[in-house]
């Protein structure tokens, strides 16, 4: 159990921090919430006190005999400020100590994570950029905000990342495992491609994208620059990842190859269609047009095999990871596929009813080109993602 300080400053996204607080307490951490005065205009003191089970104060003048302005920061294992407004980033960067939260930030000797949320103009303002750079230089982790709908009609970077994403970064930091992918660029493909039959119909597959998105989220949490090539996934964009949306296998190939040219690792978690219709009707095929024509198929490019081929002569990507969905002879088929596609690691899952597709859990065996294998018991897709990144990190260093 760790002692966590959750600082909340006055942004409309404060309500999402209640969920973050729950994630901390439900995983056994002791959380002390330190809001700014104005944060309480959005969510009041009783909510924080009830959810955390701890007293809540904003000022250094309460319970002075306990010296809270020093003690709270000193005894914390992690301070996370979510949402962090432009104002709180500015005060932290300049070492101000005009409320309990900024006093806590000055006295904390533990890791500090900021999850900013503000309008795009504020996030992109040179003053905020400079404050973020200062905080990062001093060792604080400033999570990139998500891109999307802001208060009012605006959209752009500045949204508070999903509480699960902030939690993921904090979980990583608290466990002392560090940001071992910092400075690395990784490419993850996720979801399932669609091969058009006509403008309204396609041949697709059952991939939900959950595993690929978990890989992207955990890579961001471990400090990587992440390009996520996303094929038809209905999940929110992971904060801090560059998301490239594609539809068909050929579009996915273009996006992956263009990002892979300077990538440390490529993880092909997408279910790429092996075949596509030879002919795509320009207009909707009508029922009234008589007996249906058979759909003739042709082979799609195999992106993973192509990357394996490229690597024979090029330096990038340095580590190549494939996924294999198998229904029978899982390990033997997996081993043959790893060799055929020239990858370093192959994550083999057994697929079938209630296995792998669309579920939050996954179990797999990771085969490596040197003959090794790691069995990953059934668990959250984030855990599987972390094992994959552990193996990638070992190969990169
Ligand atoms: N893959 C790919 N391009 C394709 C098909 C698959 O890059 N056209 C990648 C997938 O992203 C995955 C791996 O190859 O990482 C294995 O996919 P899988 O569907 O299990 O293998 P197949 O190549 O389709 O082989 P088979 O049909 O024999 O199972």
In short:
The protein is of the alpha/beta class and 397 residues long. It is built from 13 helices and 19 strands. The model has no long low-confidence stretch (mean pLDDT 93).
Write the layout of secondary structure elements.
Elements: E1 3-8, H1 14-26, E2 30-35, H2 45-52, H3 68-74, E3 78-84, H4 86-93, H5 100-107, E4 112-116, H6 120-124, H7 126-137, E5 141-142, E6 146-149, E7 155-159, H8 163-174, E8 185-191, E9 195-198, E10 201-203, H9 210-221, E11 225-231, E12 241-246, H10 249-260, E13 265-268, E14 275-277, E15 297-299, H11 303-310, E16 319-326, H12 330-341, E17 345-350, E18 361-368, E19 373-380, H13 381-396
Parallel strand pairs: 1-2, 1-3, 3-4, 4-5, 8-11, 8-13, 11-12, 13-16, 16-17
Antiparallel strand pairs: 6-7, 9-10, 14-15, 17-18, 18-19
Task: Characterise this structure.
The two termini are 31 Å apart. The longest helix is centred in the C-terminal third of the chain and has 16 residues. This protein is 34% helix and 26% strand. The strands form 5 sheets. The protein has an 8-stranded mixed β-sheet with strand order 12-11-8-13-16-17-18-19, sandwiched between helices. A 5-stranded parallel β-sheet has the order 2-1-3-4-5, with helices on both faces. It contains 13 helices and 19 strands. The chain is elongated and about 80 Å long. The model has no long low-confidence stretch (mean pLDDT 93). With 397 residues, the protein is α/β, with parallel strands linked by helices. Strand 16, helix 12 and strand 17 form a beta-alpha-beta unit. It folds into 2 domains: 171 residues, Rossmann fold (3-Layer(aba) Sandwich); 212 residues, Rossmann fold (3-Layer(aba) Sandwich). The chain binds cytidine-5'-triphosphate. Cytidine-5'-triphosphate binds next to helix 11 and strand 16.
């Amino acid at each position: 159990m760790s002692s966590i300080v959750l600082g909340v400053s006055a942004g409309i996204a404060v309500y999402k921090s209640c969920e973050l607080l729950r994630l901390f307490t439900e995983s056994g951490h002791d959380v002390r919430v330190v809001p700014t005065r104005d944060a309480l205009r959005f969510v009041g003191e009783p909510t924080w006190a009830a959810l955390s089970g701890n007293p809540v104060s904003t000022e250094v003048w309460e319970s002075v005999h306990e010296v809270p302005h020093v003690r709270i920061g000193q005894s914390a294992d992690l301070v996370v400020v979510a949402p962090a407004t432009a104002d709180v980033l500015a005060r932290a960067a300049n070492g101000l100590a005009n409320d309990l939260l900024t006093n806590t930030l000055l006295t904390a000797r533990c890791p500090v994570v900021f999850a900013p949320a503000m309008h795009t103009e504020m996030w992109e303002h040179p003053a905020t950029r400079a404050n973020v750079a200062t905080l990062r230089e001093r060792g604080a982790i400033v999570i990139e905000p998500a891109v999307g709908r802001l208060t009012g009609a605006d959209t752009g970077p500045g949204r508070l990342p999903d509480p699960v994403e902030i939690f993921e970064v904090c979980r990583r930091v608290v466990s002392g495992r560090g940001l071992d992918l910092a400075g690395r660029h990784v490419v993850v493909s996720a979801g399932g491609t669609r091969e058009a039959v006509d403008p309204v119909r396609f041949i697709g597959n059952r991939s939900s994208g959950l595993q690929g998105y978990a890989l992207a989220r955990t890579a961001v949490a471990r400090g990587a620059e992440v390009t996520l090539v996303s094929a038809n996934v209905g999940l929110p964009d992971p904060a801090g990842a560059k998301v490239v949306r594609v539809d068909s296998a050929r579009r996915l190939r273009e996006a992956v190859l263009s990002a892979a040219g300077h990538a440390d690792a490529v993880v092909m978690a997408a279910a790429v269609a092996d075949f596509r219709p030879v002919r795509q009707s320009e207009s909707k095929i009508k029922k009234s047009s008589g007996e249906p024509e058979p759909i003739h198929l042709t082979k799609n490019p195999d992106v993973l095999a192509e990357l394996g081929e490229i690597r024979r002569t090029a330096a990038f990507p340095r580590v190549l990871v494939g996924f294999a969905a198998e229904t029978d002879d899982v390990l033997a088929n997996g081993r043959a596929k790893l060799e055929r596609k020239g990858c370093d690691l192959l994550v083999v899952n057994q697929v079938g009813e209630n296995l792998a597709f669309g579920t939050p859990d996954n179990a797999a065996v990771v085969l490596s080109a040197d003959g090794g294998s790691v069995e990953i018991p059934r668990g959250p897709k984030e855990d599987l993602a972390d094992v994959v990144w552990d193996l990638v990190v070992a190969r990169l260093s």
